[in-house]
Design goal:
- By secondary structure, this protein is α/β, with parallel strands linked by helices.
- It has two domains: 225 residues, Glycogen Phosphorylase B (Rossmann fold); 162 residues, Rossmann fold (3-Layer(aba) Sandwich).
- Helices cover 42% and strands 15% of the residues.
- The protein is built from 16 helices and 14 strands.
- Strands 3-4-2-1-5-6-7-8 form an eight-stranded mixed β-sheet, with helices on both faces. Strands 11-10-9-12-13-14 form a six-stranded parallel β-sheet, sandwiched between helices.
- Helix 8 links the parallel strand 10 and strand 11.
- The chain is globular.
- The C terminus is likely disordered.
């Protein structure tokens, strides 16, 4: 931090999502900077009924009237374009009044980074934070169809990374994937989606309600996340475990189909759908009341590489979990609190649940193994590294402005950022994974 300037450093984030409820990664980073002494603004989407301006846990929120549009590819693109246009204007106006030290753009989409054109022209470092790889995201949804659009998505990713001064990603191997696609090694760092221990601190498990054996999932509801498999597993076990209950907490496009499946199978008593997102601070008391969490992802080119944020939150709270044996989850959680089942197999998921219901010693042992993950990956270490990275980028930018004719500035910056925070993990040969 520049001690010669008494003004607090200012940082702006832009995300096309609902802050803070559905943007845990953005919230965690913003609050880390607030704790470091920054003034932080977040430009985000505005849901119906929300105020255009708000302040939450020290972060100023600027909401734009562009809700997420999931009505087909054309609707999504129009929503992306509308948000890009409004965010460009809002960010430019805010910067001219507040003079940000750094600006950070969160995907999706990658091309949202171009809303930072005005700060970029004024030599403010622009950071692109890749929550998801759009080419893999698209491949997981459409497979080999729409090849021309798939090529366009790869092009916009390349242009977005080229425009940004620095790229943040969520795993060391994903960083290497981006480098293989042409992002310079000194321009890419890792900030994993680990749980914030200040919120997700281990605590005594909650009381069991009415003797129920409680399963829990929280997060976004997409078909690829396999919640229909969890409902089918409960149906298979309704006679063997009459006290079994599944609670699904979240929102998403697959919610109506899940409700229809529950009704079709006659599971009104066994399966509860709670249509809401909660602030991160409200989640731990709910999670620790669960006997067992479930992460029933299907296996496609996208989900095979996802490292779910919710799984890291379960680890921090020492809640055992049944999860799909995808490449990423198996690599990071093979010796922790996770019991694995075959992705896409409701019967195998039911088998795991039944075995853990019968073997409470095994259930307790899984919970005790949670620190095998949290000891390796923690926000206590990663959060300060993230803040240090932004300060390094700002300091490098100031040096460049003060020595505009220096021929070695760019190379020196590359070497310094190359040694900036990077967090790796176990990597199967030839494998890749992401974090969410």
């Amino acid at each position: 931090m520049n001690t010669g300037d008494r003004r607090p450093p200012r940082h702006c984030m832009v995300v096309q999502g609902q802050y803070p409820l559905s943007e845990t990664r953005v919230q965690r980073q913003a609050e880390q900077l607030v704790a470091r002494g920054y003034e932080v603004d977040v430009i985000c989407s505005r849901k119906h009924g929300e105020p255009a301006r708000a302040r939450y846990r020290g972060v100023e929120i600027h909401r734009l009237p562009v809700p997420l549009n999931r009505a087909g590819l054309a609707g999504q693109f129009l929503g992306y374009a509308a948000f890009l246009a409004l965010a460009s204007v809002r960010l430019a106006m805010l910067h001219l009044g507040r003079r940000y030290r750094t600006v950070q753009i969160h995907n999706l989409p990658d091309f949202l980074v171009f809303c930072a054109m005005v700060p970029k022209l004024l030599r403010v470092p622009v950071v692109l934070d890749l929550h998801d790889l759009m080419p893999e995201f698209f491949a997981g949804r459409f497979g080999d169809r729409r090849r021309m659009l798939a090529r366009l998505i790869r092009v916009q990713e390349r242009l977005a990374c080229r425009f940004a001064d620095h790229v943040i990603t969520v795993s060391e191997h994903w960083r290497e994937t981006l480098i293989a696609r042409g992002v310079p090694a000194g321009k890419c760092s890792v900030v994993m989606n680990v749980a914030d221990e200040r919120i997700f601190a281990a605590r005594p498990r909650g009381p069991r309600a009415n003797g129920a054996f409680r399963l829990l999932y929280h997060g976004t509801l997409h078909q690829r996340y396999g919640l229909d498999l969890a409902i089918q597993a409960v149906s298979l076990l309704r006679d063997e475990i009459p006290e079994l209950r599944l609670e699904i907490l979240g929102r998403g496009p697959h919610a109506p189909a899940l409700a229809a499946l529950r009704d079709q199978l006659g599971l009104d008593r066994q399966v509860a759908l709670f249509d809401r997102f909660l602030p991160a601070t409200d989640l731990p008391p709910i999670i620790v009341r669960a006997d067992l969490a479930v992460v029933p992802y299907r296996n496609d080119p996208f989900t095979d590489e996802l490292l779910p944020t919710k799984l890291m939150e379960y680890a921090a709270l020492r809640v055992p979990c049944v999860a799909a044996r995808t490449t990423a989850i198996a690599a990071y959680f093979r010796d922790t609190m996770v019991e694995f089942f075959t992705p896409g197999d409701a019967a195998d998921l039911a088998r795991c649940i039944q075995e853990l219901h019968l073997d409470r010693a095994r259930l307790a042992e899984l919970a005790r193994r949670s620190p095998n993950f949290t000891a390796r990956f923690s926000w206590t270490e990663m959060g300060p590294r993230y803040a240090d990275l932004l300060e390094h980028l700002a300091a490098t930018s100031r040096k460049r402005r003060s020595r505009p004719t220096s021929s070695g500035g760019s190379r020196a910056s590359g070497r310094s950022i190359r040694s900036s925070p990077r967090v790796g993990g176990p990597r199967p040969e030839g494998g890749r994974w992401m974090s969410r």
